[in-house]
Structures are given as C-alpha cells and as structure tokens.
Design brief:
The complex is a heterodimer of chains A (714) and B (673).
Chain A lengths: L1 H22 L1 H8 L3 H9 L7 H16 L3 H11 L8 H17 L6 H6 L9 H15 L2 H8 L2 H14 L3 H11 L8 H9 L3 H4 L3 H8 L2 E6 H14 L2 H10 E6 L6 H7 L32 H10 L5 H14 L17 H15 L12 E7 L5 E6 L5 E6 L4 E5 L5 E4 L2 H5 L8 H4 L1 E7 L1 E4 L6 E6 L5 E6 L3 E6 L4 E7 L5 E6 L5 E6 L3 E6 L7 E4 L5 E6 L5 E6 L3 E6 L5 E6 L5 E6 L5 E6 L3 E6 L4 E7 L5 E6 L5 E6 L3 E6 H7 L4 H6 L8 H4 E6 L7 E4 L5 E6 L3
Parallel strand pairs in A: 1-2, 3-31
Antiparallel strand pairs in A: 4-5, 5-6, 6-9, 7-8, 10-11, 11-12, 12-13, 14-15, 15-16, 16-17, 18-19, 19-20, 20-21, 22-23, 23-24, 24-25, 26-27, 27-28, 28-29, 30-31
Helix pairs in contact in A: 1-2, 1-3, 4-5, 4-6, 8-9, 9-15, 10-11, 10-16
Chain B lengths: L1 H8 L6 H10 L7 H28 L7 H10 L16 E6 L2 E6 L6 H6 L10 E8 L16 H9 L7 H14 L2 H11 L13 H15 L3 H13 L7 H13 L5 H9 L8 H8 L12 H16 L9 H13 L12 H19 L6 H14 L5 H13 L2 H8 L3 H13 L5 H25 L6 H8 L3 H25 L15 H4 L16 H4 L14 E7 L7 E7 L20 E8 L12 E8 L29 E4 L11
Helix pairs in contact in B: 2-3, 3-4, 9-10, 10-14, 11-14, 11-15, 14-16, 15-16, 16-18, 17-18, 18-19, 18-21, 19-21, 20-21, 21-23, 22-23
The chains are: A alpha+beta (714), B mainly alpha (673).
Chain lengths: 714, 673
C-alpha cells in the first residue's frame, strides 16, 4: 500500500544523507543543504522507479554514492529500486546525466545539483545583459498603463536569473555591475532575497545555496493576462531578444488568463513569495472545509445548572433544542468530509465527559462583536531569562505549557487544582481497582505542585502542543526530535526522530492521535502517536516550514513557511491542495476559523492575511502590527480575530466585517483576483499594549475570554 | 531610496589583512595576496550564510537580539562544530587597539585571580520562572494598573498641557473611530469644517471615576495619617503607579493647600490618635493641643504634616510617568515655603525643622535639575530668590539657613560663586551671636545650624579649590571667623577623599554621605516610650536626588557612622567594606534633651544584588538598603558608640530610618511591572 512504500523510501534516503554528512564534509554540505530532496521524491511519486525521469534520478543518486565509495548503500539502493547491475557503467551514467538535465526542465524534481546548475551554461555575451535588460525595461515603461503593472512582474525573476547566469559563467565583475545597476528597481519586498543574492558572487557559492536551488528548480510563477503576454511576446520576438526569451521559456511559468489585466495593487497583494504566485490550477482541488458531525451526546442537565438558568430568567428548553438543531445542520453540510474519510480515534468516556463540559461552558459563552469586546487576561512569564520560545494552553484553559531555550518544558496549572504524578507501580498495586474513585486514588498527593519541569530535549524547544484530552504534551526542538510527554507521569514517552534538523512547530490534531510537525528540512510530517515513523510527508515548500496547524476537521493541515507561502495539505492523499501567496516575509502564525472556512496567517512583515479555503482566495489584509506576528486566534464563534506580536501588542480585528465587506463576484472567484480594500483601521477593534512583553501565544477560553502569554523582557 | 538600498546590498568583504592576521595566529606565515583575496571572499560569503541562518533561530526564539547561541545553532545546521566559550547574554565587548599601522579588534579576556572567585560569596540563585496573570483589557478597556503601560505617556500629557487643541482624549478617539466606521468618508470633511471656525480652548474636564476618588481619598489620608507603614505604601504607590496623571491636579492642590492651610478637620483625628504611637512624631500632638483651631497652617507649625507633604512631592517627582511641569506653579511655592519659612514649627528651639529645610532644599534642587529650561528659568529664579533674602540683614536665622541650604544643594558651582565669597560676612554675623551677649536662645541655635551647614557644604568645595597645604592663618584671613573650622574640615575632607579613593578602586562603588530621610523623629517625647523600634520608611529615590555631588566624600557628615556596604553590581562578585564617615567637629552642645535611644541606632547599609549576575538584562541594578540596628546588635561591628554623637544637635536626624535607594527607578521592585 502506498503509505508503506512512502515510508520505505523515506527510511532509505535518510540514512544515506547522514552518511554523506559524516564521511565527506564537502559534499555532505551540498546534500544536507537540501535534505528534502530525497524524501520529496518518495512522497511525490507513488512508487519508485516507474517513470523514466525517476529512474534517471535514481541513477544520479547511485552515481553519487559510488563516487563517494558508499558501496553498501549503492547495493541496497540498487536492489530496492530493482535496477540492473550494469546500470552504472559509463554509458548509462552519461544518459543519466542528460536525462536528469531534461528532468530539471520538466518537473519540480530535484536531481543532482551540478546538473541543475549546468542549465545556466548556455551563454550570450555578458556585456549585452545590461542592454537586454534595460531594453526590456524601456519597453515595459512605455506600454499602456494597464499592462505595465502586469509586465513589471517579469523584472524580478528575469533579474535574478540573468544575474545568476552571469555569476555561473564567471563574469564576476559584470554580474556585480548588473546587480548594482538594477537591484534598486526591484520591489522592496524582495529585499531579503536580494541580500542573499548580493553575497553570492562566485560560481562555487552557487553550490549548496538553498535559496538559489529553490529558485532554479521551481519555476517562478507569474499570472499575466493574455493581452499583456501577447504584447511581451511580440516585443521580444521583434527585437530578437533571445536571451530573455529563453529565460522566460525555461525558468518562468506564465499563467495566462483571459480578461482584464490586474492592477498594481492586486498584483502586489498576491506577490512576494519566493517562487512567485500560485498557479491557478494549484488551488482548484475541492477542499472539504466543513466540520465533522459531532457525536450525539446526551447532555445531562444537572439541577444546579437549571436553577441557575431559571434565575437568569432564560427559557429552559431552548438549550437542548439548539444543540439538536446544531447537529442536524452539520449533517447536511455538503462541504464536510465524510465522517470516516480519515480514521479518527474513538471517543472514550473521559472524552465524552469533556464534551459535556464543553457544551456547558459554551452555553455561558459571551457573544463577541465589535461592540462587545473580550476581556484579555495576560499571563506573564517572569524571570524567563533563558528565553521563552513556545507556549500552549489546553482547550479548557486549565494548563499552560512553556517551551524554553534551555531545552526544558514546563507545565503550570492555572486552576487551584495542582499537578500530580501517578503513584509508583508498587503503590499502584495496593489500590482497590474496583473503587469508584480509582482515578483519584492513583494520583500521588505528595507530588502535588503548581508546576512541573520536564527534561529531555537537547536544544531550544520551538513548538509545544497539548493533546485534546490533556493527557499528553508534544514538544519539538532544535535537536530534531518531537517528544511526546505524559502529563500523568510527567516523563517522556516517545522521541519521534525523522526531521534531523530543527523542528520549528508541532501540533496535535483536534481529535488527538495524529500530529503534524514541520521544520528546517522543509517537509512537514504527519505522525500518529503510536507509530515511530511518519504516516505522511508533505513536501513542496521551498524553505523552512515555520508553523503547522490542523484544520478543525482534522482532514487537512496548513503549513506556513519561510518561502512566504502557505500550503494546505490533504491528510488523506498527502497532496498539496492550496497554495496561498501574498506574504512578504516568513510566516510565523496560522489560525483556522472555528467553522473551518477561513484561514488567517501572520508573518514577519507584521500583516495578517485572511484566506477563504474553499475558493482559495485572499479575503483581506489586516495592517497594524509593526513586528512579527507570533500568534493568531479566532474567538470561539469566529467573530473576532486576535493577533499577538513581537511589538508587544494584542490587537483585535473584526473579521466578520472583513468577510462581509468583501465584494466578490463570479469573475473574481474564478480568477482569484480580489480587489482588497484598505480598511484595516476600520477593522481594528482594539490595541492593547503590554509593558515590555512580546505576545507569543493567544487562546480563547470556552467562554470567549482571551488569554495571552509572553515572557517579560526587561 | 534606490541608492540607499544599493549601498545596503553592496557586498561587504572582510579585509585581506584580517586573513593575514588570522593565518598568522594559526601559524601560517607567508600567505599569498591572491590567497588572501580568495579566502576573504569565501569567508565573507560563509559568514553571511551563517548569519542568515542564525537570524532564523532568533526569530523562532522570539527575540529581537541575536545571541551567540543562535550562531552556534546555525553552525550546527551546517555540521560545523559550534564556537564554545562565547556564552553571553549581553554583547561581547570587543576591544579596539591600534599600533604599528594596524588596527585590531580583540576579545579581552581578563586574568582572574581564582582565590578572589573562591572567596567571594556566591551570588544569589536566580529566581525561577514564574507565571503572573493580570488584566490586559477588561471588555475593551485597558485598566490603569502598574502591570499595564501608562494610559497616557509623558509625551501625551505634555501635548495635552501645552497644546490642548491638538489633543483628542483617548476615549473619544476610540469612539470616534468606531462611529466613523459607518460613515467612512464623512469624518475628514468634518475636520475640514472645524478648521474654519474659531478655535476655543476646550474646557478640560477632570472626571475621576469612583475608584479613582476612593484611591485619592485613601492615598491622601495615608500620606498624612499616623500609620507609617500605610504611608510608605501610599508613597510607593504615588511613586510608581502609572495611571495617576488624571489625579495629578488634585494631588498638587492638596499639597499646596496643605502647606499654606491645613485642609480638613478629618485629618486632625489622625493627629490626635498619633500621639499614642511612639513611632510618630510627637511634636504635633503638642501643636494640636495648643491650637484648638481647625485651620492650621505653616505659622501654626505642623512640622510633621509638612514633612509628609514634602515626601508626597518627592514621590510625585519620582514617578516616571507623570508630566509635572504643568503643576510646578503649585508645587514649587510649597517647597520653597518649607525651605525658607521663618517658622515651621511651634518650638523652633526643640523641634528639628532643619531637617525639613534640608529635605525640601534637596527637592528643590532636584526639580531645578529636571524641570529647568531656558524658557521657565526655574533655577535662576530660585537662585535669585534665595540670594536676595539671604543678603537681607534682617532675615532670621531660620530663613537664612533655608536660603543657604537651598543654594548649596544646587551644586558645587553655586556654592563656589555664591556662598564662598560671603563666608567672611556670614562668619562675622555668626560670631556676633555666638560670642556676643545672649539675646535669644533661638538665635543661637540658628547660628549654630547655619555654621555647621556652611562648614558641611563649603569644605568639600574648598578642598577642591585650594591646593593641599592648609594653613589655619590663611583660612582665617580669607574666611574670617569660620576660617579655622573650615580649615580642619577641609583637611578632614581631603583625608577622607584619599581613603575613599582607595575603596573606590576596590569596589567601584562610591558612597556619598547617606542622606537622612525625613522620617525624622522629633526626639523629645519619644524617649519616654522606651527603646524605639526602627521605623520602616521606604523612600525610593533616584540617585539624582540622593547624591547630587557624587564621590565627594569630604563633606563632614553630622554623625560618625559606620556603614557596611555590600556591593554587588550585576555580574560582578560581591564585596564587602566598611566605611566610616567621620563626624563633624562642629559639634555644639544641644540645648534640648535629646535622648540617645534613637541616635545609638546603627545604620547598616546593605546592598542587595539585583537578581543574579548576568541575568538582569541591560542595566546593572544596585539596590541599597539601609537598616538601622539597635546599638546592642551592632556590637559585632567593632567600633564606636563612643564616636556616636549624642551631642550633635541634629543627631536625631539619623534615627531609626530605613533608606532604600536604587540607581534606576523601579529597580527596587523585583516584579517587572
């Protein structure tokens, strides 16, 4: 079955990567710089060695292994792939090289580095590059206004590719001159990348540079209207400007659409990512964003509650009615995935109890809105000199966990109920297992304390997440592992190894059992707590995955990345179903709305973007923060979005209004060209400044009280 | 813009000399120029790469500051062994050196004596991580509590007071935007229309919420009430609370009215009860018994009340969130009154109003320092006032004392230009009182105080002005009657300066004369209640007030006291030292019956480390706590109750007091908020 095959390829490639790192420092660096390469082949293709391209890739890998005298690995790989013994003779090698060269031009595979780069070897006269570029610039400046903005998109990718060509062909001084002349023209949001480029002046530097490889292996995607494209094409053909035409043909993907050319603001809203915009067809897949039907649980109304409500003068019968109605409507939701689309763990008794608690709390929930703002309770971590790097609250807001740069994980109880460990095995034997309060008896009263520290990681803890049942805690760390901790014994149960590089974020599925992690190796992995290997590997991001979030229905996972894109992955198939571009900096926070329809994302650029998952559209832009947004959270009923940032503020946004105000028609929905209003100021409901505490986590309690957390930073 | 950016991108490459220097440091002698160029380019590129990766770690560490551990982690990513030994929370202090045509930046590694490290007491264990919850907002409104930033910053308050037309109240602004949402474009039009109209200064309303009114009542009552602990708390609140600006007009009126007239009868109750508490200043009871009137003002001499009000002024000035400029017209007259008033208490021969004058003078100096600008000219106006009344022959000794104290506190320059030239004249006047026929005891006491004040302030300045050989005769010719005494003071100041210079070298801590705070007990009656327990008065004060003349140890301090100073600056080892500040020789017999219970208290200066070395972020915190010990307890300190001056007139000044001071405001609280 497929997932098994995937795992196999994964195990196969990982150790070999390690091998390079240890045995051969120089080449190891090259490969280790793109650790995703091996695994991505595994996950993208269903089975190994089927298509000719794949075979070529394998041959290239084999060749590399052989060259580095890793005979055993060669043997294993060859056997696994079912290649003939003589596949590595010189002739075959040659064809392999040529083949993978072709592969590079065709698909997003990431074959041998040198082969990829060699695509730059074709060259024109280096002195003419400036002429070509300025010629095109002149042309674009003179076209009609309506086309200019669209055609200007070409500048940046062209500039980068031309510069790289110059560098690759050892025209260092020309490259420098070219860079200095035209780098100032580029859009300001590419500044980061330009800085990387400016440092890169030698052919040798190009090897092993991730950014460059990304740029090279993935085609830069531009969306241009048919008219504008024709204009450009005609111009280039007239001028016989083959150099530029070749680059456009080979390195750019121009997504042509029919209709009105887009305006500058529309383009700016969507651009900024490392590899251009998303192709339109990338966002065409149907996404079942609806919520799963809640299991029907009888809600026992205890007397106390009823009395309280009678006092308040509420009609008694309303509540159960409402609940039943709610579940009925969910049944009919056409956008919801089928209940067993992915297998979910069965509800335990304790889960049912928790659900009941949840519903009770939900009836006391405050309805928020622009005229009814939530109260914010701020939890400040004092004396966190070692650096607080991650925070999470349990859903019922009874526990706080903090991950610290000194590798510790700490859990606090914020209710009077103290944290207790389970008794030792010997003591447990003495307990009467038939008694009603056995769950209470197993706890060791002597260990009660307000907080517990858990040691185990060997690097800063960057991600932390409670399981929905509050029995487990996940933490991900710089040391490359994700650890599962028991909150009954306060010990580590499992260390999930696989990332090998820092794991920036991890999160439990809302139904428990599954969890997702993403890190520096540019892949996100889906795990189940009882498997030591990942069930799915989501690969496609061009840079570090910085944050991961589960969709409320647990069928999808969203990942944000340093390549400034957000991808939504289908847990069932492992495919990428949405790519959202528009951020101008690494994305550090994501949040799904409670109804599963919308996604909010925050980045280092201080902006929050809102997305419609079903249509794959950008819905709004919330400007106001002045620094990285580390935390986003929708209120329980989805009326209000709270954002917390490095700029020491918590801001509240009226997202309902943002969604309502957006003017959409069929055309915009079809093309994805949203005309965003600049109404951030109207949507901003409140700004609350802390004294000197960056806000790194937010959480709405079940009654819609907003909890925020951060470490005081004197 | 483009040019700017281009410069930023301009690839910076390490100089080839660096390569050479590094090569030499690892034993490669002759490195080819070409190799240097190639190396420097490669190295620069790799360094940039590592810096980029390190930035990732910084972002994920939720920090704005790149640390050495980020670099280490970035190196680990590249399978490179991290650099060990660069653990530092702060910047690494690279030192610069040049010579022989070379410029070098190097990391200074000091040689440390192991025995020093072993012998120094261990620093306190840093506090553990803890959680603290507070309300950042309650239903959309941010409560004005110390945990939250002040609702109106000093700048806002300033704008409000200087340009009231520009100000939109925070609340109104909020409403405006909320309402404005619906209308969208209408708001700018509205503003345009307003421009056409004549602008009237809006009547500013100072509405206080019920909570604020309650707070105001509590605070003012506690400040002038009888319970010292409560007062300390109240003053602490005034000095630190960020949300007081709305109450500021009330406070300033309270103070100014309190100085000129005694406001309410309710306060009297406190005073009547106060006579029961031994800690309390007892003169007031006497006052009140005598004055059955409800209105008590300065002439009726409630010394204690004045002291309390001055402490309120001080607390207000210490609050970093308040924009006091607007209320100086009320506060300064009140303070000046307390400095120069002819009579501040009912029995000037017994009561120690001198301390109040000293304290108020220091307050004045502090406000001159902070608020004096070229437009308001506070300092020069104040100086003129003081000088004028000092020059007047008819001025009473009390006022004279106040003027001199006020001037002296303004700093050595003022002493040099205004006081020292008049020493001879003043000396003659003192002589007339001291050696002439006894006219009035009060005059005599006044003259004594003026004399010791002059000696105290002038000695240090003269010590700096004149070169060492101190000739008594010379002094006599130059300064007249005061000359010989000045001479001995100056000499003492010099030896002390030398002594302290040594200690300074050792500890890098300068101790100026610890200022008595105004928890002054009026000695007389307190003695009867037996040995006093040291009253605990916290006066958090910024260094500016406490030692306007840092490091000049030459002032003869009234009582010879011994201080144990434990200094711990952040990151450094603790040291301990004993400083003896010798007493002034101007001891003159005291006419009052000063019981020695208070004066035998031995102040002990203890310095608490901020919160563990290396962990306090950027600024080193120093905290001094002066604790008075009963003399019995001080037996372990080898010296001197013999030196202890029961004889000195103002000795009661230093009675039971606790002085807490910190170099940076706010350092006194561990909690960050």
């Amino acid at each position: 079955d497929t997932s098994l095959a995937k795992q196999k390829t994964d195990i196969k490639t990982e150790p070999s990567t390690d091998g390079f790192g240890n045995n051969n420092a120089n080449d190891g660096r090259v490969l280790s710089a793109s650790p995703g390469s091996g695994s991505s082949t595994g996950s993208n293709k269903q089975t190994a060695a089927v298509t000719p391209e794949d075979q070529q890739t394998l041959l290239a890998v084999l060749q590399f292994l052989k060259k580095n005298k890793l005979i055993e690995s060669v043997e294993i790989l060859r056997r696994e792939a079912g290649l003939p013994e003589n596949s590595l003779d010189p002739k075959a090698t040659e064809s392999a090289g040529a083949g993978s060269g072709g592969a590079a031009a065709v698909a997003e595979d990431q074959p041998d580095v040198r082969v990829v780069l060699s695509a730059y070897s074709q060259q024109g006269d280096p002195t003419l590059y400036e002429v070509y570029y300025s010629d095109l610039k002149k042309f674009i400046e003179t076209v009609l206004d309506c086309h200019r903005a669209e055609l200007s998109q070409v500048f940046y990718p062209l500039f980068v590719h031309m510069y790289l060509e110059l560098v690759y062909n050892n025209h260092e001084s020309e490259a420098k001159a070219f860079f200095e002349k035209f780098s100032g023209d580029q859009e300001c949001y590419y500044e980061e990348d330009l800085r990387v480029l400016s440092g890169l002046t030698k052919k040798e530097h190009m090897r092993g540079n991730e950014t460059l490889l990304d740029f090279r292996t993935s085609k830069f995607v531009l969306r241009i209207s048919r008219d504008s494209y024709q204009l450009l094409k005609r111009h280039l053909q007239e001028r016989q400007n083959n150099q530029i035409w070749n680059i456009i043909q080979e390195h750019l993907y121009i997504d042509i659409f029919d209709g009105m050319p887009r305006s500058k603001s529309q383009i700016d809203a969507m651009s900024g990512s490392l590899a251009g915009e998303a192709k339109r067809e990338a966002n065409k897949t149907k996404v079942y964003y609806g919520l799963l039907k809640e299991p029907e649980i009888e809600l026992p109304l205890d007397d106390e509650d009823e009395e309280a409500e009678n006092e308040e003068g509420k009609p008694k019968k309303k509540k159960p009615k409402k609940d039943s109605m709610g579940s009925k409507s969910k049944k009919q939701d056409p956008n919801a995935p089928s209940q067993n689309r992915i297998p979910l763990p069965e509800l335990k008794d304790s889960d049912k109890l928790d659900k009941i608690m949840y519903m009770k709390e939900a009836t006391k929930r405050i309805r928020l809105g622009s005229d009814n703002l939530p109260s914010v309770c701020f939890y400040t971590f004092l004396n966190a000199y070692q650096g607080l790097t991650a925070v999470d609250f349990t859903d019922d807001s009874s526990l706080i966990a903090g991950g610290f740069a000194d590798s510790t994980v700490r859990v606090w109880s914020v209710t009077p109920k103290k944290l207790r460990k389970v008794k030792s095995a010997a003591d447990l034997n003495l307990i009467d297992k038939e008694s009603d309060d056995v769950l209470e008896r197993i706890m060791d009263e002597k260990t009660a304390s307000e907080s517990k520290i858990m040691y185990g990681h060997s690097g800063p803890v960057y991600g932390i997440s409670f399981s929905p049942d509050r029995n487990y805690l996940l933490s991900s760390s710089e040391d490359g592992t994700v650890r599962l901790w028991s909150l009954l014994t306060f010990t580590c149960l499992v260390a999930y190894k696989g990332h090998n590089y820092p794991v920036w974020d991890t999160q439990f599925s809302p139904y428990g059992y599954y969890f997702v992690s993403g890190g520096h190796d540019r892949v996100a992995r889906l795990w189940a707590t009882d498997h030591y290997q990942p069930l799915r590997i989501f690969s496609g991001h061009l840079a570090d995955i910085t944050c991961t979030r589960f969709h409320p229905n647990s069928n999808y996972v969203a990942t944000g990345s340093s390549d400034r894109t957000i991808r939504v992955w289908d847990v069932l198939s492992g495919n990428c179903v949405r790519i959202f571009t528009g951020h101008k900096g690494p994305i550090h926070s994501l949040a799904f709305s409670p109804n599963g329809k919308f996604l909010a994302s925050g980045a280092t650029d201080g902006r929050v973007l809102l997305w419609d998952i079903g249509h794959g559209l950008m819905m709004g832009e919330l400007k106001g923060h002045t620094d990285t947004i580390y935390s986003l959270r929708f209120s329980r009923d989805g009326e209000i979005l709270a954002s917390g940032s490095m700029d020491n503020t918590v801001r509240l946004w009226d997202v309902m209004k943002a969604f309502d105000d957006l003017e959409t028609d069929d055309f915009t929905a079809a093309t994805g060209h949203i005309h965003l209003q600049d109404n951030s100021q109207e949507l901003l409901l409140g700004t609350y400044t802390t004294k000197s505490t960056p806000v790194i986590h937010l959480h709405f309690t079940r009654r819609n009280l907003l909890l925020a957390a951060g470490a005081f930073n004197p | 813009m483009a040019e700017e950016r281009r410069q930023k991108h301009c690839s910076v490459v390490l100089p080839t000399e660096s390569m050479k220097a590094m090569a030499e440091s690892v034993g490669v002698g002759q490195l080819q120029e070409d190799s240097c160029v190639a190396l420097s380019e490669e190295v620069s590129y790799r360094i940039k790469e590592i810096a980029q990766d390190a930035l990732k770690f910084m972002h994920h560490g939720k920090r704005r500051k790149l640390t050495t551990s980020d670099i280490d982690n970035a190196l680990k990513l590249k399978n490179v062994e991290p650099l060990y030994g660069f653990q530092s929370q702060e910047f690494i202090p690279f030192r610069f050196a040049s010579g022989g045509g070379r410029e070098l930046h190097f990391y200074e590694e000091k040689e440390v004596d192991l025995s020093d490290i072993i012998n120094t007491p261990l620093p306190r264990v840093p506090l553990d991580v803890s959680l603290k919850a507070h309300w950042l907002s309650i239903e959309g409104m941010q409560p004005a509590i110390p945990e939250n930033p002040p609702p109106a910053t000093k700048e806002q308050q300033k704008v409000e007071s200087t340009e009231p037309l520009k100000v939109v109240k925070p609340g109104q602004e909020e409403e405006g935007t909320i309402q404005g949402k619906g209308q969208g474009t209408t708001t700018p039009d509205g503003k345009g229309k307003e421009k056409g109209l004549i602008r009237l200064k809006p009547r500013s309303t100072h509405e206080l919420s019920v909570e604020q009114q309650l707070y105001y009542k509590e605070i003012t009552e506690a400040c002038v009430g009888s319970c010292e602990a409560k007062r300390a708390e109240a003053l602490q609140s005034i000095a630190t609370d960020p949300g007081l600006y709305q109450m500021l007009p009330r406070f300033s009126t309270f103070i100014s009215e309190g100085v000129s007239t005694f406001p309410t009868s309710c306060l009297l109750n406190h005073f009547f009860t106060s006579q029961k508490s031994p800690e309390h200043i007892c003169v007031q009871s006497a006052d009140l018994r005598l004055s059955s009137k409800v209105r008590v003002n300065v002439v009726q001499n409630n010394l204690a009340l004045l002291i309390y009000l001055m402490r309120m002024v001080k607390a207000l000035m210490d609050n970093p969130t308040l924009y006091l400029e607007k209320y100086l017209h009320e506060l300064i007259p009140a303070v000046v009154t307390c400095i120069v008033s002819k009579q501040l208490c009912l029995r000037p021969d017994v009561d120690n109003h001198w301390a109040l004058r000293d304290f108020a003078a220091r307050l004045m100096a502090q406000s001159c320092k902070t608020f004096s600008t070229t437009t308001n000219n506070i300092q020069s106006r104040i100086t003129k006032t003081f000088t004028k009344s000092w020059l007047d022959d008819k001025t009473q000794w009390t006022t004279r004392y106040g003027c001199i104290a006020g001037l002296a506190e303004l700093g050595p320059d003022v002493i040099k230009t205004l006081i020292i030239p008049r020493l001879a004249i003043e000396g003659a006047r003192i002589k007339a009182v001291m050696e002439g026929p006894v006219i009035s005891n009060i005059d005599k006491i006044g003259a004594e105080h003026v004399q010791s004040l002059l000696l105290k302030h002038c000695a240090s300045v003269i010590a700096k002005l004149r070169s060492p050989p101190d000739n008594v005769e010379q002094y006599r010719t130059e300064y007249g009657y005061l000359g010989p005494m000045l001479c001995s003071h100056v000499m003492k100041a010099r030896t002390q300066a030398a002594l302290q210079a040594q200690q300074v070298n050792r500890t890098t801590l300068t101790i100026t004369q610890p200022r008595p705070t105004l928890s002054v007990s009026q000695s007389g009656l307190s003695g009867s209640s037996g040995p006093r327990t040291p009253s605990i008065i916290k006066v958090p004060s910024s260094l500016t007030l406490m030692s306007p003349r840092p490091g000049t140890p030459s002032q003869p301090s009234p009582p010879a006291t011994k201080y144990i100073v434990m200094a711990t600056s952040a990151g450094a080892a603790s040291t301990q030292q004993v400083i003896t500040l010798s007493s002034s020789q101007s001891a003159s017999p005291v006419t009052s019956t000063v019981p020695s219970a208070t004066s035998t208290l031995q102040p002990l200066v203890k310095l608490e480390p901020g919160s563990g070395p290396g962990l306090t972020a950027s600024r080193p915190l120093q905290k001094y706590i002066v604790v008075s010990l009963p003399s019995s307890a001080s037996s372990s300190l080898e010296t001197k109750s013999s030196v202890l001056p029961t004889s000195i007139s103002s000795s009661s000044l230093d009675g039971g007091m606790k002085l807490e001071r910190s170099e940076s405001p706010g350092a006194s609280t561990q909690s960050p908020h």
